[in-house]
Amino acid sequence: MFTTDWKPNKSSSVPLHKQITDFIKEKISNGEWTIGYRLPPQRTLAQELGVNRSTVVTAYDELIAEGLIEGKSGSGTRVVNNTWNLLATAPPPDWNSYVKVGTHKPNLPTIQEINQAEFIPGIIRLGTGELSPDLIPRLTMKKVFQQLSNKEISYGYEEPKGLLPLREQISSYLKTIGISASPSSILIVSGALQALQLISIGLLHRGSAVLTEKPSYLHSINVFQSAGMHLTGIPLDKEGIQANLVQSLKKQQKAALLYTIPSFHNPTGTLMTMERRKQLVDTCQQEQLPLIEDDVYRELWFDEHPPKPIKAFDKHGLVLYLGSLSKSLSPGLRIGWIVGPEPVVEHLADIKMQTDYGSSSLSQWAAAEWFSSGLYSKHLTEVREQLKARRDFTLNTLNRYFSDIAVWEKPTGGFYIWLRLLPSISMRKLFETALSEGILLNPGNVYDHQAEQYLRISYSFASLPELQDGLKRLSKIVRTIAK
């Protein structure tokens, strides 16, 4: 998805097509659009700049005549030269070739579009998986930082595993949910996503197979695929991942580990039952299959506590447990943790030191203050009430506008409703049409390429008026496309 802050001046005496050619020339000569860069399609650029397509066609034709760009049927229009290259004997490097061979693969195109569209002013984000700015306790956050300013804290690097006072607080917190973990078996990371990256590059061989739920958050990011892993999905039912399939798939795929989100699963909202958790850890123990438990939504329950973490039933150091403050408190703190056997934690800490030399010490001190002061526990009570009210509002809105065109389950916590549309329609067309009308969606196929008729609806981010307006208009779009 192409966006730019620049727009031609329609009141200028300089013709619009000439302004566009000068803009593109500047991009090329500054090295922003390098050789091999694919220019936006004529229609896309015309819409973005608010001009007729014929104006863009004229500008492109001039640049082609000057030898700066070249259009080929099927592969679009690309930069083939730059103003410096016309004078130099040695051409500049083709950065596009470097981008293509880099180890880390780009996000799926739809994910890239979502990431960019989230910053369009006024857009209604119906799928965003984070707390609304209204739910982030800004005043209390200021109070925490004020308290820190009166304390003797360090502003330098922390030890490899992270700030000891924070690890001690997390150790105490984990006891309340049934996990016995000393501070030495805890690693502070910059969110659960970094934990996954460290695990993928630090513990797995290239080509390893990873079992996960189908659908799964892992399918919407490339962290494991970029490390050369292969993902194999295991279907979900109402009790969670179907643990009875693990044994056969482990042997069939020669799987190296299993990744699961047992509490208020992303994207389906499913809560794994106590019985299923025990069955899963028992199966993994029998198969000697390590397990990653991603529990970042755990504290966002509404009516009753979720079952104990899988890690609480782990007596053999089989489970790596991931937690975070990003979903429950503030994504901006970038604080999460890995809990596991000390040798594993120490190895991952060493790799983390090689990559970023430790998470922000200021964020770690702030997180420790949230825990030790009791403010985090108080905040969780408040945010649960708010999220529950948002869930109920969203369910009522869905009942009003989607009762005959979709089905869904009522989540008991977390952020998400997994909406299955009954009319068979093109999700790409739905995504593009909704986006053109200022509504940003998270299609199901970014979590599982077979989940073509699903949407991940989040009630955590958009305001209540936005949720109502966005869902009402979305239902009309679905009905129009389905005709």
Topology:
Blueprint lengths: L15 H14 L12 H8 L3 H13 L3 E4 L3 E4 L15 H7 L7 H9 L6 E2 L12 H12 L14 H12 L10 E4 L2 H11 L6 E6 L8 H4 L3 E8 L2 E2 L4 H8 L1 E6 L13 H14 L3 E4 L24 E6 L11 E4 L2 H14 L5 H13 L1 H27 L4 E2 L8 E6 L5 H10 L2 E2 L13 E5 L5 H19 L1
Parallel strand pairs: 3-14, 5-6, 5-8, 8-9, 9-10
Antiparallel strand pairs: 1-2, 4-11, 6-7, 10-11, 12-13, 13-15
What does this structure look like?
By secondary structure, this protein is α/β, with parallel strands linked by helices. It is 40% helix and 13% strand. It is built from 16 helices and 15 strands. It has helices at residues 16-29, 42-49, 53-65, 95-101, 109-117, 138-149, 164-175, 192-202, 223-226, 246-253, 274-287, 342-355, 361-373, 375-401, 427-436, 464-482; strands at residues 69-72, 76-79, 124-125, 186-189, 209-214, 230-237, 240-241, 255-260, 291-294, 319-324, 336-339, 406-407, 416-421, 439-440, 454-458. The strands form four sheets. Strands 4-11-10-9-8-5-6-7 form an eight-stranded mixed sheet, sandwiched between helices. A three-stranded antiparallel sheet has the order 12-13-15, with no helix packed on it. Strand 6 (230-237) and strand 7 form a beta hairpin. Helix 2 crosses helix 3, helix 7 (164-175) packs parallel to helix 13 and helix 15 packs across helix 16 (464-482). The longest helix is centred in the last third of the chain and has 27 residues, at 375-401. The two termini are 28 Å apart. The model has no long low-confidence stretch (mean pLDDT 92).
The total count of strands amounts to 15
For the record, give the distance between the C-alpha atoms at the N and C termini, rounded to a whole number: 28 Å
Give the class from helix and strand content and strand pairing.
alpha/beta
- Strand content bin: 5-15%
Averaged pLDDT: 92
Q: Radius of gyration over alpha carbons?
A: 25 Å
Number of helices: 16
Largest beta-sheet details: 8 strands, mixed
Shape: globular
Helix content: 40-55%
Strand order of the largest sheet: 4-11-10-9-8-5-6-7
**Segments where pLDDT lies below 50 for 5+ residues?**
none
